[in-house]
Write a structure and sequence with these properties.
binds hypoxanthine; Rossmann fold; 242 residues; 5 helices; globular; alpha/beta
Length: 242
C-alpha cells in the first residue's frame, strides 16, 4: 500500500475518498495525527499530515519514528513524502517542483533511528531515495504535463527558523540545491523499515539571501503554496492511475 505524507500546504489530501481514520500508537509514541485510510483514484492509500491537525507541530517536534512506524504497521510499502522547500539552485524558483536525489542532514537532537541497544541498524543510505519510486513519479509528472526538476540535493536543516544568508551559502557550497526542515530523519527511518521512499519537493520561496531585494519569504510561501500543491496533486493522480 502507498502512503502520502503531506507537508506544509498539504494538510489534507483533497480527492481522497475517506474510508476510516485510525488513531494509532506505536512503541515510539503517537504519530502526528490519526492515519487516514481511503481511496485516491481507486487505489488504496494512507494519508498522514506530517505537522498534525492544524499544522500544530514544528519540524523539530514531529515524532518521525512514530510516523514511520505507524505507516509500517499499517502495511505501507511505499511513501511519497510531499515537502515545501526553499530553492537554492536557480532552477528552483518559487513554484518549481523537484524530485531530489540526495540528502545532506544538518538536523540535530532528533530521534533518528529505530536502533536499540543490542539491535543497531546500519542501513545503506548511499542513495537515500527509492530509484523505482522516483522513476514512477517522473513518469506520472510527464503524463500529467507537470514540469518536475529531476535530481538535486535536499539540505535538511533544524528550523524552525529560516536560515541566514551565510548558512544558505554554506549549503550551496556543500552542493545542496534546496533546503527544508523535515526531510530527515524521515527518509532514513523509512529505509530502516525497508520502505520505498521518495520526496516531491515544492519550492515555495527563494532560500535566504537568494530573493530579490524587497521580496518577502513569507509572502512568497503564501503566494506559491496553493497553486503548487494543486500540481503536486496532479502528479499524485497520474501516479495512482498507473
Ligand atoms: N528553508 C527551510 N525550510 C523551508 C524553506 C526554507 O527557505 N522554505 C520552506 N521550507
Amino acid at each position: 500500500m502507498l502512503a502520502v505524507i503531506g507537508g506544509t500546504g498539504l494538510g489534507q489530501l483533497e480527492g481522497l475518498v475517506h474510508e476510516r481514520q485510525e488513531p494509532v500508537s506505536t512503541p515510539w509514541g503517537k504519530p502526528s495525527a490519526p492515519l487516514e485510510f481511503g481511496y485516491y483514484h481507486d487505489r488504496p492509500v494512507v494519508f498522514l499530515p506530517r505537522h498534525g491537525d492544524q499544522h500544530r507541530l514544528a519540524p523539530h517536534e514531529i515524532n518521525y519514528r512514530a510516523n514511520i512506524e505507524a505507516l509500517y504497521q499499517a502495511g505501507v510499502q511505499e511513501i511519497v513524502a510531499v515537502a515545501a522547500v526553499g530553492g537554492i539552485d536557480p532552477r528552483l524558483p518559487p513554484g518549481a517542483l523537484a524530485l531530489p536525489e540526495q540528502i545532506i542532514d544538518y538536523t540535530w537532537g532528533r530521534e533518528q533511528s529505530f536502533s536499540r541497544p543490542g539491535d543497531v541498524i546500519h542501513i545503506d543510505f548511499t542513495r537515500p531515495y527509492s530509484d523505482a519510486l522516483r522513476q514512477q513519479l517522473l513518469k506520472a509528472a510527464d503524463e500529467a504535463g507537470v514540469k518536475l526538476v529531476e535530481g538535486g540535493v535536499y539540505g535538511a536543516t533544524q528550523g524552525p527558523r529560516l536560515e541566514t544568508a551565510a548558512e544558505v551559502d554554506r549549503l550551496e557550497r556543500d552542493g545542496c540545491t534546496m533546503v527544508g526542515m523535515t526531510g530527515m530523519p524521515e527518509a532514513a527511518l523509512a529505509r530502516e523499515r525497508g520502505l520505498d521512499y521518495a520526496c516531491l519537493a515544492l519550492s515555495v520561496n527563494h532560500a535566504a539571501g537568494r530573493a530579490q531585494p524587497g521580496e518577502s519569504i513569507h509572502d512568497s510561501i503564501e503566494a506559491t503554496l496553493e497553486e503548487g500543491m494543486a500540481r503536486v496533486r496532479s502528479v499524485l493522480t497520474a501516479f495512482m492511475e498507473n
